[in-house]
Amino acid sequence: MDKTNSKILTMSFALAAALVGFTLHLLIRILAGAFGVVARMTDSDVIRHGVPVAVALVMFAVLQFNPRVLAWGEEVVAEIRKVVWPSSKDVTAMTIIVIIFVILASIIITSFDFLSGQLMNVLVK
Is the pTM of this model over 0.70? Predict the structure, then answer.
C-alpha cells in the first residue's frame, strides 16, 4: 500500500468515525429530551460521552484493520487519482453559464406564474 494512500485512508476512516460518534452523541441528547428513561441514563457521563467515543473508536478500528475495507479504500483512491479535474478557466466559464441559465429559468417561471395568476384573477372575477 502506498504511504500517501495509507494516510488518506486513515484520515478518512478517522473522520467517518468522528462523524458517527458525534451523530450518536446528538442522538442521545435528542432521545434524552424525549424519553425519561434515556434522560435518566444520560445522567451518567459514561453514557453521555463514553458511549459515543467508544463507538467511534470501535468503528475506526474496524475500518482501519479490516483488509477488505482497506482494499476497497485503495481502489477508491486509485480511481479518484485518475479523475481529470477541470482547469480554473473552465470552472469559471461553466459557473457563469450555469448562473445565466438559472437566471433565464427563473425569469421564465416567474413570467408564467405572473401570467397564470393574472389569468386566474380575470376568470374568477
Answer: no
